[in-house]
Amino acid sequence: NIFDVQVIRDPTNVKDCWYPKHISDLDRCNHLISKYEPDLDQDHPGFSDKQYRKRRQMVANIAFSYTYGDPIPRIEYTEDEKRTWKAVFDKVEDLLESHCCKQFRDILEILKKEVGFCSEKIPQLEDLSNFLKRRTGFSLRPAAGLLSARDFLASLAFRVFQCTQYIRHHNAPHHSPEPDAVHELLGHVPMLADPQFAQFSQELGIASIGASDADIEKIATLYWFTVEFGLCKENGKLKAYGAGLLSSYGELLHALSDKPEHKPFEPSACAVQAYQDQDFQDIYFVAETLEDCQFKFRRWVEENIRRPYDLWYNPFTQTLEVLDST
Ligand code: HBI
Ligand code: FE
Question: Could you report the predicted ipTM of this complex, rounded to two decimals?
Answer without folding.
Answer: 0.97
